[in-house]
Specification:
Blueprint: H1 2-32, H2 37-49, H3 51-62, H4 66-91, E1 94-95, H5 98-122, E2 124-125, H6 127-151, H7 165-197, H8 201-213, H9 215-226, H10 231-255, E3 258-259, H11 262-285, E4 287-288, H12 290-310
Antiparallel strand pairs: 1-4, 2-3
Helix pairs in contact: 1-2, 1-7, 2-6, 3-4, 3-7, 3-8, 3-10, 4-8, 4-9, 4-10, 4-11, 4-12, 5-10, 5-11, 6-10, 7-8, 9-10
Length: 312
């Protein structure tokens, strides 16, 4: 099992670094083509931080590991909300922009409700469900980019690295290769570890894999907080959570139907409740303070204890 743990950690490293290389290469190509910096941030960078979850869930879905495919996304979203956003608030309390409270957070809640409805209807996510999620994702992305263009909310261009076209392509291909290889390593070795320890794939997906694939969001948000840009933390979290459900589960279920059991439905209900509670708290305070941040982190500890008691 020691070998499996080493390979699992190697898989996480490949996922995180591969996502970094993919984002740098894609952003450079976009910059060369004259795409505005804020559009790059809203699309390539946002999807890049969700690349590890995508690699793991799609790989698991194709291999028939339904528990990992769903629990990875749900676990990552819960970790993002409670730990990433919460920890950033502990580091530095932050205000939340109106567009986040009025548009993106409600969209996130609606997406969670939609996922729950789709899971209830057929006890599985099939091709039609996947296409529905992908179409809605495309519409949401178009609306976000269109609104950004309309309001000219352009971000700093200095954040985008510009490389030669050849080096950019090398970064993209190398990054995608690392992400795909990392995804396979994580799924296969996580299953072996779960089997050896007698743990369920659901527990592994909701905790170890979810935390590992959420490292890009955690690093990005914590770095932003240390720079005094804590407000970016929640935006990164909400954007990633929307992408995780609509894009990742949409792709996964389109490639191969994902069976849904009662535990998966319960965890999506928990995710929905957590999302709604965090939204209400942020709406009342117009931001996230240290008390809310500490409460979120403690909430995640409590959630992990619940998983230990119910899924192992």
């Amino acid at each position: 099992m020691v070998v499996n743990i080493i390979l699992l950690l190697l898989g996480f490293v490949l996922l995180v670094k591969g996502a970094d290389f993919f984002v740098d290469g894609s952003s450079s190509i976009a910059k060369i083509l004259g795409v505005p910096g804020f559009v790059i941030g809203l699309t390539i960078v946002a999807m890049g931080t969700s690349a590890p979850e995508a690699a793991v869930s799609i790989t698991a879905g194709v291999q028939g590991s339904n528990e990992i495919a769903i629990s990875n996304v749900v676990g990552s979203n819960i970790f993002n909300l409670l730990v990433v956003a919460g920890l950033c608030a502990v580091i530095k309390p932050y205000k939340i922009e109106k567009v986040m409270l009025n548009r993106d957070f409600p969209v996130n809640i609606v997406v969670n409700v939609l996922l729950l409805v789709l899971m209830f209807i057929g006890k599985a996510l099939n091709l039609l469900d996947g296409l529905c999620l992908l179409v809605l994702f495309a519409l949401y992305l178009f609306f976000v980019v269109f609104t950004a263009f309309k309001n000219k909310e352009e971000q700093s261009e200095d954040d985008v690295k510009k490389m030669s076209p050849l080096l950019s392509v090398v970064f993209i291909v190398g990054g995608l290769t690392a992400v795909i290889l990392g995804g396979n390593l994580v799924v296969n070795n996580a299953k072996e570890i779960a089997l050896a320890l007698g743990w369920s794939e659901t527990f592994i997906g909701l905790t170890i894999i979810a935390i590992g694939t959420s490292l890009p969001e955690l690093v990005t948000s914590v770095v932003a907080s240390k720079k005094g840009e804590s407000g970016l933390a929640l935006g990164n979290v909400i954007g990633s959570n929307i992408f995780n459900i609509m894009l990742i589960l949409g792709l996964s279920s389109s490639l191969n139907p994902i069976a849904v059991d009662n535990s998966a439905i319960i965890n999506v209900v928990i995710l929905l409740v957590i999302t709604a509670l965090v939204y209400v708290a942020c709406l009342v305070k117009k931001g996230m303070g240290r008390f809310i941040g500490i409460t979120c982190v403690l909430g995640y500890i409590g959630y992990t204890a619940y998983l230990l008691a119910t899924t192992i």
